[in-house]
Amino acid sequence: MLERTTFRVIAFAFPIWTFAIMAGAIWAEAAWSRYWGWDPKETWSFIAWVVYAAYLHARSTTGWKGPKAAWIAMVGWGVMMMNLFGVNLVISGLHSYAGLQ
Question: Which of 4, 26, 27, 73 is the most buried (most CB within 10 A)?
């Protein structure tokens, strides 16, 4: 049941994440005259997108279930935590709070 719930949550959130990355690129072009600048937040967002795309691909096409799919989902969660905490608080960039007093 937990595996099915994980799949449903990721399958629901993935298109929203895709839209967010695309909308962010469009906004960045209007704000900074560039769609993509390899800022740490942009890069880690893309890495998270790739990991979750791999999860959905492996689960849908090759039928990975159980521990294999769970490991990919856990890697995705780890990447998201890096994106949320590591990039915001440790790594300096346009989208971070690193170095603030």
Answer: 73
